[in-house]
Each structure stands twice: as C-alpha cells, then as structure tokens.
User: Fold this.
Amino acid sequence: MRIGRILGVAFLVIMVQWLLIQDLPLTQYGNPYLYLWAFFVIPFNTPRSTIYLIAFLIGSTLDSLEQSGGAHTIASLITMLAKPALENFLYGFKEENSNHTLGSLPLANFLPLTFLLVFIHHSLLFTVENSGFSQFPALGLRILMSTLCTVGLLTITHFLLSKRYAA
Amino acid sequence: MQQLILFLTRYRTNLLLIGLLLLAIIRQSLKNPVSEHWINSVGSGFSATISHTTGSWKSYWSLEDINNELARENAKLRASLRSDEAPDFAFSDNYEYIPVKVIDFSFKKRNNYLVLSGGKKLGILPGMGVISASGWIGTVTESTANYAYVLPFIHEKGEIGARIQGKGLGQLSWSGKAKIAYLKDIEREYRPVKGDSVYSYTRAAIAPPVLTGIVTSSKQSQEDLSWDASVELTTDFMNLNWVYVCHFKGKTELDSLKTLME
Assistant:
C-alpha cells in the first residue's frame, strides 16, 4: 500500500515535470526538477533496497522521457545513497524506525537537507550529462541555477502539501 | 558455496545498488546517437506518442509564435523572389524540402536533441540535413516510420563546416551558451568582421548552404595566425515549431556513382 502511494506520487510528479515544467523557459541555465518530490514522500523506515529500486525506476523513466542515457538514474541512486549520511550529519539522527518522511519535516530542517540533496543530485546529473567537467563555469552556473529553482519549487510543494501547514 | 550465499545475503542491498548503478552507467556510456536510439527505442516511442498526443494543446498556446514564424518565412520567400542578397553558393534547386513539426526538443543541456513528427513514411532518412526558416538546425540520425531523431547544432557532436562569402571555410561549433557559436580556422588573409554572414557548409547530400549566424567579434590565433570568430546564431533553439528536412534529389545517382567507383 505504502509502495503504491509512493509510486502514485512518483507518476504524478513525473507527469507534471514532463508535461508542464520541462518546457518552461524559466532560465537558459537548467531546469527545476520537481520529480525529486517523489523521494520526499518515502518514509524513513523504508528498506534501503526498496528505496534503491524506486530511485532506479524513477530515474530510468526520466532518462527515457528526456533521452538522457542514464544520467537521472545515476544521480537519483547516489542521492538516495547519500541521504541517510546527510541526515545523520545535519541532525545527528537516523530515523530508520520512523514512519515520517522528508516532506513532513519542519521548514528549518527541511530547507538545509533539501538544498544539499538537490545540490548533490544536480551536480551528478549535469556532470554526467556533460560527460565531465568541460566548460566548468557554464556547468557550475547550470548546477547552481537549477538547484535554486528546484529547491524553490520543492519548498512551495512542501508548503502546499504538508499537513504541518494545513489550516 | 555456503560462503557465497552468506556473502550475497549479507551484502544484498549494496550489491543491488552496485548492480543498478552499473546498469545506469552502461546505459549512459552507450549514449551516442545510434546506440542511444536503440536502447531508448521503447522510451522514445512512448515519449514521442505522449508528446504527439499532448501536442495539440501545446500547439494552441504557441499559435502566435507559429504565426510569426510563418509570417517571417513568407516575407523571406517573397524577398528572395525580387532581390538576391544571399551569395550564389546558397542557392540550389537540387533539393526538396519536407516540412515537419518538431514534437519534442531540448535546449538546456550540453547535448540536446530534437524529435520530429515525420519519419520514413515521409521519406526522412538518417543523414539528411534539417533547416528552419531562420537557419541551420542539425542532421537526422535515426528515423522510424513516423518519427525522426535529430542531432542538433547545439550538441557536442553537432559542429559543422561553415563559410563566409569570399573568406573561405572554417569549423563552426556551439559554445554551450544560448545563441553563441565559435567559428575557427579561417585563413589569416581573411579577417572575419562584425556583421559577416556565416553559412553552413556540409556535404551536398546533407543540405544546401544556409544562413547560420552573424559574426560578432574575431581574434587572431597567436600560433598559426588563423582567425577565430564569435558568431551569434540566427536560429532560436528555444522556440522550434516547424523545420524542413532537406532531400537531395541526386542522392540515388550519387550513391550508384560511388558504388561504381568502389
């Protein structure tokens, strides 16, 4: 049931990403990737293997839609690998037994973690897509602008969907 | 054997991660226009179908842009009937132009792509050049019955030969920034100056020479004294609606001649 919900959310955000956000000319240096929200509804106590399979599935779908080889898959898998270590580094806890999700964290905790996860994801994504570090200034600008756009969009989504802010 | 099973059981999560990563890396490493098409054929077909299905409402919102582009093209055609501003080498009646709609494209990556809503049924085959009303677009690398995949100029491998009238040939490649390209290796006798028109220069079987950009600045190489120029592209790759695939009328004859020579 829980997996079904995660996959349902993943399908929705991928469709929103593909049909609406992908073509928005917000900036020539990259794109916000709302589909990362699917990783924010995975409860902390989900088994690692399940998380990796979900990341692979979501990344591969985006790669096929975007014609980007395996860039999204690699970025998603490594981001999910780094996630527990980041949580531990930032807040000193491993909520592996909690049913909570990243999306249910208070804003003060949500923002730094989101920024780091998105930054790691986008750094990997654009570097792999660029096949290395050639034209580094343009690559760096693309990573930074896209990270800011994605974090902004995820924060808005957090405000809109999180029960914490419900009236 | 028991040790192996124990090892696999103990490290199954890490092994799963490594396996999935390997799959993704292999898929990425095979990424070139041909193998990418092969591997992504299912995904491409799916995304092309979705893009086509949703294309109608997207088209509705971009009607104004299409109208402007058609008006520009119409004006250009009318102008070419009366005056002849373009150089002689840019005119050729050896081509048929197949108009097709762009149903999917990217412009923000280092390696971008285009998917066209026409394929082998319309006579679109790999190797054909693609142009728009405003200039050079790219080359068809793969085509199915109803769709074609184009390697555009704004791709790492999208560089082409280019020519400035009266100033010889050079190599034109995308800078990675929107609308800016670099023209290299112009002979030292011919300094490109601001405002010079740069025309694409590919093999005859691909496409005729078309306006591709305007020189904005130039500098001389200290090593061999050849000229490098910065070029502003005439095509806006952020807004592509209709393009033309160039079909060289003499291709069959040319191919048979090559076979004879071999």
Notes: DSSP finds six helices and no strands in chain A. The mean pLDDT of chain A is 83.
